[in-house]
Write a structure and sequence with these properties.
single chain, about 475 residues, alpha/beta, Rossmann fold, 3 domains, six-stranded mixed beta sheet, globular
């Protein structure tokens, strides 16, 4: 655990007692702070009490004695309107920050001098989790103590304190960036930008601006690495390059760059030296299929090379990456049918990356809908043998698929898995794939996308014997 000492002997409020909130309570208490906390969920409140927080309804807090409000990233800060606890904090001039800000104050308390350990921050709409996990894997293989967390895995405050070989590799959501004004990473990566979380940011422009802010906060002697294949990200890269300061490295998939790192024709090229050099064949990374993973590989390679001088060490580590849970993760193989868990695909753009990888898909989709629906996936509909729709988005998805792709209103994940497995087993497809790639958030039926993926894995393991026999 990283102890948060910046509020020693002061009172700090924590609103939201899930993973990041509880970690904040523990870190603050260990650092000598008095912590008051609240969560609308009684089980979460009990966990906060066990972590030594004083559990008090937030409307009873004495704001004039509170030094800071630690806000869960899931609580609205600005749009569609600030949560009332945020409004009260701002009226009392109480800073509203998140757990990553507490981390930043401990790891780099003084921006003017070198930090205790390098920090790599990774953001973007899609690919950031895979890139984060892959980069952590590369650095660990190269002998670093790679501490991976943030929006993936552990909360940042649950990571180990810095040691001689520590490098922090953090996935950062837009919600976390909003709550972290004081993080000045050594390296920041932006994978790509497509419409997402617009309800929480108000517009695509606001969403892109939040992502760009993280890159602008990079230390002047640091590096920013940007996927330049979409217009918003390309504009951010151009602005950063013109500004000077941190070195800016472009990354592309399908486009040859005069400098930077790019993937074309199934190979990865490094053009950061005098000329472009082929460094690996993408097929040598079997757990990273598809063009989108070409971008993840290129981003992680570019960041790793800042710390690892031998390119072969980096590419060898990429080839041994085991894959990321809930992202195109094979969780079962029954007869000719493969079962792929892509629960982390919470928007249409992420799902497109999975649909592009398989020719005969029995697709499980739906959940809490996001803006735009699945209209953008029309080019992949010919790959879908049948869709099985679940959750709140089922009706809207059905209207989009009507007359284009067969579908079934399954309603729940268990019914969808059973039906899809049976249909795939009976199909004439030589290599059918049952694909959970929801193109939706999970909050209508599950706690988070991890729980949704775990349930899918368990359901596949328990498929009826007759389905297994039919396949």
């Amino acid at each position: 655990m990283i102890v948060a000492r910046s509020y020693s002997q002061k009172t700090v409020a924590v609103f939201g007692l899930a993973r990041t909130g509880l970690a904040s309570v523990r870190a603050l208490r260990a650092g000598g702070a008095h912590v008051i906390a609240w969560d609308d969920n009684s089980t979460a409140r009990d966990a906060g009490h066990d972590a030594s927080a004083e559990i008090t309804p937030w409307r009873e807090w004495a704001w004039d004695g509170i030094a800071a409000l630690i806000l869960s990233p899931g609580v609205p800060l600005t749009h569609p309107r600030p949560h009332e606890v945020v409004t009260h904090a701002k009226a009392a001039n109480v800073p509203v920050i998140g757990d990553v800000e507490l981390f930043a104050r401990e790891i780099r308390p003084d921006v003017a001098r070198p930090g205790k350990a390098p920090v790599i921050a990774i953001t973007g709409t899609n690919g950031k989790s895979t890139t984060t996990a892959l980069l952590g894997h590369i650095l660990a293989a190269a002998g670093f103590d790679a501490q991976v967390g943030g929006n993936i895995g552990k909360s940042v405050l649950e990571l180990a304190p810095p040691g001689p070989k520590t490098v922090y590799v953090l996935e950062m959501s837009s919600f976390q960036i909003d709550l972290t004004p004081g993080l000045h990473p050594d390296v920041a990566l932006l994978s790509n930008l497509t419409p997402d979380h617009i309800d929480r940011h108000g517009s695509m422009e606001n969403y892109a601006a939040v992502k760009a802010r993280l890159l602008r906060q990079v230390a002047k002697d640091g590096h920013v690495i940007v996927g330049v294949d979409d217009d918003h990200s390309a504009a951010i890269f151009t602005a950063l390059s013109a500004k000077g300061g941190a070195a800016a490295i472009p990354v592309s998939v399908g486009k040859i760059l005069g400098r930077g790192v790019f993937a074309v024709d199934g190979a990865l090229y490094d053009a950061q030296g005098p000329r472009a050099a082929k460094v690996m064949a993408l097929e040598d990374a079997p757990r990273l299929p598809g063009a989108h993973n070409g971008q993840n590989i290129a981003l992680a390679y570019a960041a790793a090379r800042i710390f690892v001088k031998d390119a072969h060490t980096v590419t060898n580590a990429i080839s041994t990456f085991p894959g990321l849970a809930h992202r195109m993760e094979e969780v079962g193989h029954i007869g000719k049918t493969r079962f792929i868990n892509d629960s982390k695909a919470t928007n249409a753009d992420a799902t497109a990356r999975a649909l592009a990888c398989y020719p005969d898909i029995f697709w499980i989709a739906g959940g809490k809908p996001k803006e735009g629906g699945i209209e953008s996936l029309a080019q992949y509909f010919p790959r879908i043998r049948k869709a099985y729709l679940i959750g709140e988005a089922a009706g809207a998805f059905a209207r989009t698929l009507e007359g284009k792709t067969p579908f079934e209103m399954a309603g729940t994940l268990d019914k969808a898995v059973e039906a899809a497995a049976a249909d795939a087993a009976r199909s004439t497809a030589p290599a059918p794939v049952v694909l959970l790639s929801p193109a939706s958030a999970s909050y209508d039926q599950f706690k988070d996308f991890e729980q949704r993926g775990d349930v899918f894995r368990a359901l596949v393991a328990k498929l009826p014997q007759e389905v297994r026999a039919a396949s």
